[in-house]
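Per reviewer request, we include the raw input and output of the structure prediction for the construct analysed in the revised manuscript.
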Amino acid sequence: MTVDALTDVSGLRVGHATRTGDGWLTGTTVVLAPEGGAVAAVDVRGGGPGTKETDALDPRNVVRTVEAVVLTGGSAYGLDAASGVMAWLEERGRGIRVGAGPAHVVPVVPAACVFDLGRGGDFRARPDAATGRAAVEAAAASEPGAPVPQGCVGAGTGAVTGVVKGGVGSASTVLGSGITVAALVVANAAGSTVDPETGVLYGELFEGRRVEYPGAEVHAAAQRRLAQTAARSTPPPLNTTLAVVATDADLSKPQAQKLAGTAHDGIARAVRPVHLLNDGDTVFALSTGDRALDAADPLALNEILAAGADMVTRAIVRAVRAAEPVDGPGGAWPSYGELYAGR
């Protein structure tokens, strides 16, 4: 049984830590790999990234596997959340062994952040090491294959896409070969996920199904509402869409890096414009290695690459559809569901 989320890749678990109220509108999301880690890679396309330990994932470097990936709010301040995840892993002897003792490990925990500073009203309300620990503990406590909470949770709590509320979304598919490919995104883009001419989500145009367009009156009302709320919400247009794309196929680090790179196509289908100088768009790729690729087919990776991009697009659509509106001291951001009710 699948749940159409990142956790359909066997061994991966997802945990959120969410902070709202009293000036807070932020959080952290942790993707926890199975013990022993997962092969990992990264591809950064945005012009303003905030990341940690991404150089370790370069295929030319020695690190092959990671124990967890951290996605967090709080801009560069929020990267401190990774310290809490590292401490949790160290306590369990999980990481790269660097000495004779069982506790002599260094957990490699890549992390990336989104900009959500001040969206809850307090610029200093941002994730820290305790937030990261709470998120990894939530991941560890979840059942294998558990559904992934989506919308305004974890790193997507304060996410915004254009002037519409963003959030966390996830999706998965099983290929004809039996290989699973899945994605989890934090949709927080400077660009828009909504076509201003029609009100349709850009990502839905690529989902291969008939698109239902909003009526003219509904769309006009939505545009008026967006114009009103945009005047109340004028923080710096600093954003970032983050994604983790995962598969149970046995990939090398270079293959995983190719998967991370092509998965950016999924962002480009769902967000316009994308990869701007004030975005930090970053995609991590994980491989748990449970299923072998067809060694006789040099192009066997292609269907995984295509599926990875498709899952990112679908996950962004889900993030925007699952988001709830916010109206508080830091600003007002309607949800897509509120603007186009019933669609």
